Amino acid sequence: MSTTFTPTETRRSDDYIESVMGTVKAKNPAEPEFHQAVQEVFDSLRPVLGKHPEYLSAKILERIVEPERVITFRVPWFDDQGNVQVNRGFRIEMNSAIGPYKGGLRFHPSVNLGILKFLAFEQVFKNSLTTLPMGGGKGGSDFDPKGKSDNDVMRFCQSFMTELSRHIGPDTDVPAGDIGVGGREIGYLFGQYKRLRNEFTGVLTGKGLNWGGSLIRPEATGYGCVYFAAEMLKSRQDSLEDKLCLVSGSGNVSQYTVEKLLDLGAKPLTLSDSNGVIYDPDGIDREKLAWVMDLKNVRRGRICEYADNFKKAVFMPTDIKLEHNPLWNIKADCAFPSATQNEITAKDAINLIENGIKLVAEGANMPTTLEATKLFLEAKVLFGPGKAANAGGVATSGLEMAQNSARLSWTRKEVDERLHKIMIAIHSNCFETAEKYGTAGNLVNGANIAGFLKVANSMLDQGLV
Ligand code: NDP
Questions:
Q1: Are residues 332 and 355 in the same domain?
Q2: Ligand 1 within 6 A of CB of 257
Q3: How close is the Cα of 344 to the center of ligand 1, in Å?
Q4: Which of 111, 142, 178, 315 to mutate to test ligand 1, by most ligand atoms within 8 A of the CB atom?
């Protein structure tokens, strides 16, 4: 593959992207997150499209942005007081060219069609990078589990699954967790699916260990992100040893990111939730992490309590008037955004760069805006895009599906080793692809191009479907 382009090739590629991007915006109004995710992938594909007229004639871009199926449904349920509640449920079945649809369910009041479409679109390329046979999907609801009783959550999950069960199956579409959907929710969803279908199958991943779950699945996204970061540093003859690290969020991904950072000798300094940030200059050690896990997973409390309990830590409440997040203005070596989309703005990126950040690894999906990503790449900060850096979660979901199909359970060590190898392979695939297409060191391009090629070529093989 040559990396130089004739003016005709460059023009062909630019014109095609501009034209499809215009249609995406016109046909999907008021979905800015979806536009952002598509724009990022398209920008990376410029060197590919000029050399491959077959993608243009088969209208691969027009097809890849159009979900194969979008399901929206009413979710009525009774709350503890006997009041009727109504939420909206979604499942986006985005692309099944390389396997059954696979991707998490998000329960959060901010959920809407555009957010789930961006997540489903990202998932297609991420799943392709894992080397496992999984297509892309995403779903969820505007239901907010925060502050709800277990019985409220159960009745909601049962109503949600009553409709969703018509559309999913172990060889069709296999959802998992995401924001607001952890072990408790997966349990209630699985129970209702089994009751409705009279089938005990691997229809969901993230299941409990006693009923088909995989060891390491809860840890996988955070562990995988840190394994990926270690590979990025290795490419510059560096390691995580003694690195000061900023972690945002305090849910599943953040907790296991902190755990693996401690394993590898780094010092995590921060956590957050939607109410604010805690900064612990002494570092979050194993004992403090165990306390956070109990706070978040058992007592379901708020992160501000950390500063009441550990006196040297400070709590900075969320201030919507502030144009930057104070978490990203703390001096550190590495940043692991692990809460939600667009949590690092251009201003945050400037603060991080001015404070000498060496590495950003995205535990969350699309936590960095397009402008901020550009700033990191220009400043030669090691930047691990979510599609690659947080792919360990879905990869281990793929391993859970394999164990379910074979009716086997692998040991903790075996799953962890497979996860580690997958993350190393994803890093080298992104690294080498970036180099091959003339943008050495740009893992955003590497991830988008490598993920795209496998899916696009499979779509070509399977004809116009
Ligand atoms: P959790 O629900 O376990 O935790 C989410 C954390 O992020 C909470 O601390 C939450 O705070 C915070 N958060 C969520 N939304 C916002 C917001 N709008 N503003 C500020 N803080 C917010 O979710 P996960 O840890 O599973 O997911 C975190 C990110 O990682 C998401 O982007 C998800 O898509 C991504 N991801 C998750 C994977 C997984 O396996 N779980 C796999 C790959 C990616 P609060 O409690 O106040 O809402």
A1: yes
A2: no
A3: 14
A4: 178
Band of pLDDT at residue 10, cut at 50, 70 and 90 = confident
Distance CA 46, CA 12 (A): 9
> What is the biggest distance separating any 2 CA atoms in the chain, rounded to whole angstroms?
68
Domain identity same for 35 and 73: no
The CA-based angle 313-222-118, given to 5 degrees, is 110
Q: How many domains does the chain have?
A: 3
Copy the structure tokens of residue 280.
Answer: 């612990």
pLDDT tens figures, 19-42? 999 999 999 999 999 999 999 999
At residue 341 the predicted structure's pLDDT band, cuts being 50, 70 and 90, is very high
On whether both 250 and 380 belong to a single domain, the answer is yes
Q: Are residues 252 and 383 in the same domain?
A: yes
**CB of 270 closer than 8 Å to CB of 246:** yes
Query: Among the three residues 335, 369, 389, which one is the final residue of a domain in this structure?
Result: 389
Residue 51 has pLDDT above 90, yes or no: no
Taking the CA of residue 220 as reference, the ligand 1 atom at the shortest distance is 40
Helix (H) or strand (E) holding 447: helix 443-461
Helices 183-197, 150-164: crossing angle, 10 deg rounding: 50
Cα(274)–Cα(279) distance, integer angstroms: 15
In this predicted model, what pLDDT tens digit does every residue of 100-129 receive, in sequence order? Answer: 999 999 999 999 999 999 999 999 999 999
CB 255 within 8 A of CB 289: yes
Please report which residue ranges of 407-442 form alpha helices under DSSP H. 412-436
Please say which residue of 64, 82, 102 terminates a domain: 64
Name the residue with tokens 């069709």: 172
Query: Residue 368: CB within 6 Å of ligand 1?
Result: no
Is position 106 within any domain?
yes
Calpha distance 261→399 (Å, rounded) = 23
Q: Is residue 289 included in any domain, yes or no?
A: yes
Q: Which of 23, 96, 17 is nearest to 50 (CA)?
A: 17
pLDDT at 2 over 60: no
Is the CB–ligand 1 distance for residue 251 below 6 Å?
A: yes
Best residue for ligand 1 mutational test, from 274, 295, 315, 345 (most atoms within 8 Å of Cβ):
274
Q: Whole domain around residue 59: which residue ranges?
A: 7-64
Same domain, 268 and 379: yes
